[in-house]
Inverse folding.
């Protein structure tokens, strides 16, 4: 039943995303996200993952966000896995300086292979804290729930695997119900260079709803290595 639900939502959500994105935005921006991901298999089912990223904004002219992240992922079965991660980031704040942020996440991931396709759903709970304090709201930790649905296609005889995903963010514990404050729509491909190395190149369209409509067009470039 869970797999059938993932498939149906994967087909339905693009229509809902399109309806949301047709609202005219007040601000637009372009950025490039550079990322390096490393994965090390500790046991048959336990993986250690390390990531680093630099993200730009204002037409890729300024660095907005830098992070280092470590995660452990455990595969309970071929269809279900869970992970926990910690991220240390440095973000550009309103005073023009960079300040540290801390983020903890817990993920539950369901996936189902169907021929060359793989359908997956991920639910994430994250807790983020700031070191730059402007008002009392910045002192408390910010909790968010994120849900992502992804479809991948593996060309057996070719080195690339195109994908598409949609993701929604919802603040938690703020008495806002299911008020989504951010959505992402992305398409791209993973290009395998060898059994242990691949490039991931994609386009991300992000809309922020929290204060005013803001659209971001993002070019994502990642190098992935495994050991």
């Amino acid at each position: 039943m869970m797999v059938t639900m993932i498939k149906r939502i994967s087909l339905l959500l693009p229509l809902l995303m399109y309806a949301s994105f047709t609202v005219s935005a007040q601000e637009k921006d372009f950025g490039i996200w550079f990322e390096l991901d490393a994965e090390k298999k500790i046991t048959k089912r336990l993986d250690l993952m390390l990531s680093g990223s630099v993200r730009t904004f204002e037409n890729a002219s300024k660095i907005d966000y830098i992070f280092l992240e470590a995660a452990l992922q455990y595969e309970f079965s071929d269809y279900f896995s869970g992970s926990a991660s910690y991220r240390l980031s440095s973000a550009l704040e309103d005073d023009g300086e960079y300040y540290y942020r801390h983020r903890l996440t817990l993920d539950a991931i369901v996936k189902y292979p169907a021929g060359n396709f793989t359908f997956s759903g991920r639910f994430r709970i994250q807790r983020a804290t700031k070191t730059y304090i402007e008002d009392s709201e910045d002192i408390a930790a910010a909790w968010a729930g994120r849900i992502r649905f992804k479809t991948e296609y593996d060309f057996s005889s070719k080195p690339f695997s195109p994908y598409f995903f949609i993701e929604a963010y919802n603040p938690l514990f703020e008495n806002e119900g299911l008020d989504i404050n951010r959505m992402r729509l992305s398409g791209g491909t993973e290009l395998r260079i060898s059994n242990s190395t691949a490039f991931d190149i994609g386009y991300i369209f992000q809309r922020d709803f929290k204060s005013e409509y803001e659209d971001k067009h993002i070019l994502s470039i990642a190098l992935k290595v495994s050991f």
User: Anything to note?
Assistant: The chain has one domain: 2-226. The longest strand covers residues 98-114. The CA atoms of residues 181 and 211 lie 9 Å apart. The longest helix spans residues 2-21.
